[in-house]
DNA sequence: CAAAACCTTACGGAAATCCGTAAGGTCTTA
DNA sequence: TAAGACCTTACGGATTTCCGTAAGGTTTTG
């Protein structure tokens, strides 16, 4: 079993619950932090001292306060850590249950587990730790279809960018110019129209307003 | 000090933290529930047995699961309870920091405190309990300007309705027809345009898409 | 390689939006 | 009651979105 674990979560009370689970698994070398930057520094220095952490359990959303942070979210933290220390196992523990988030964390950033905070959260943390220790990937039941299903996986970063800019108030013409100046292809007004039209059909939206409302509800932007 | 308290929060681990605070205040008669409906029933039956709860500390968002619930959110719960039992003190304890939510809870539903979950959440819970016990209203610092300021309080139900329908994908023409068929005045296309234009200016939105994105972020719809 | 499939881009027209102006109605106030 | 403020409604034009069609380029496939 893991012997050295770091918990990162800005709500102290949740840390307590996770710690209880770790106790139950006989894991006593547990460190807690409340800021992403602290998590990064702890892991880095432990690694340099040849006493690396084996597992990180982290939340995604951290309330910002007066302390300026390099890593504003758990996602940024996971991304960086997994690049730098691929051997470090990472369990994400979040209330966030949007499929796109799960997908990004697991597939892109290579997190090892995604556990939704909820009534059974701590039980799932237990299961996740065991699965991850065995080299597996654990995903909460309520979001497990994020990976498998043939759901809206075919929307890509380009589409997200379009939707993002649209929701920022840019006209389609302005989006076209934005893409040109950022060397993103395709950039013609016609292409912007085509892609947004495709998205409208995909999400069964009546118009661009409806589309933005829908994807915001879905948490895609 | 309060002697009989109910905590309602679907994440067991958070309950633990709040319970610690209550312990520190010498409050030992504490009950916990994980569903809004349970909270309602407990309070109702305690009242009927002439042993009413004095204080409810509740979350707003509850994950839905297999159990069908009459009260889907903490907001519904607070609304109902405060109507039925005005003497019951209510502290809302939520990660939600949108001003409109705070306003509705405090002004419309008459909650006694609004505490944002965060790094200092438990300290604030402590302060809130003391303030509320003294008959006051407590609001977390980060959202306290929700009430005082002269902010966008002048947007009314009619505006919300327009924004709602707009985000549902109706064109302005369709909204006009919708208003006519529901006998809501004013209903002309021109008026719909005017009001939406006013809202665009108010929220500094470039266009209708931008407007919907903004008010969705603000939690107005 | 050639055909097919796909994508990008351009263009044009219908519809919707954005944004003035103006007329008429309602409410407030002196 | 009369003037003023405010609101609703109508209308017209500029701009933007919506939605086809078509030409040219790139990628896939046999």
UniProtKB/TrEMBL annotation, chains A, B:
Q: Which domain of life is it from?
A: Bacteria
What's an example Gene Ontology biological process for this entry?
phosphorelay signal transduction system
- Supply the PROSITE patterns for this chain: RESPONSE_REGULATORY
What start-end ranges are recorded for coiled-coil regions in this protein?
A: none
GO MF terms listed in the record are:
DNA binding
Residues that the record marks as modified (4-aspartylphosphate) are 59
Report whether Phosphoprotein shows up as a keyword of the record.
Answer: yes
- The entry's keywords: DNA-binding, Phosphoprotein
Segments forming domain Response regulatory? 4-132
Q: Which SUPFAM superfamilies match?
A: CheY-like
Q: Which PANTHER family match?
A: TRANSCRIPTIONAL REGULATORY PROTEIN RCSB, TWO-COMPONENT RESPONSE REGULATOR
Official protein name in the record: DNA-binding NarL/FixJ family response regulator
Tell me what organism the protein belongs to.
Winogradskyella eximia
